[in-house]
Task: structure prediction
Amino acid sequence: MNGRRLHPTLPHLAGEAPTSLASRLAQLHLTNNASARSFCADMGIDFRRVVDGQPDALTALADLAGADPATLAAEAFRRVPEGHLFRGERLPKSSLLRTSLRFCPACLLDDCSGASKPEVMAYGRTVWSIAAIRTCLCFGVQL
Ligand SMILES: [Zn+2]
Result:
């Protein structure tokens, strides 16, 4: 922890991808070009390293948000030479969908229900990027 903490901040939510947390923080703090990439650049965090699950970038993001670094890291796909590591599983590159966005509409509706700022409450689940997972674990809806 380097003492830099955002105020206000947002909690890291259950199953949330690190890139989603960065994106929601961007929505909260930026008015123009509110992208996760811009937000991370403004905060001195290399967004590419967040995408790649590199521990230094994840720890910097967690510290900034006031999140638990280990919990955030557990939701990251860490790039390794032969693909990615996720919770001890080695995943070939072809098993991840990272250039298109998949989501569960029921989860997003649930995230936004009653929210005054739905753009910071809807969040991306890490498991939505795993190609073999095609159905929401909570609602049974097709991703
Ligand atoms: Zn769902």
Q: What stands out?
A: The chain is about 35% helix and 5% strand. The chain has one domain: 18-129. The helical segments are 18-29, 36-42, 47-51, 55-65, 69-74, 105-112, 118-121. The mean pLDDT is 94.
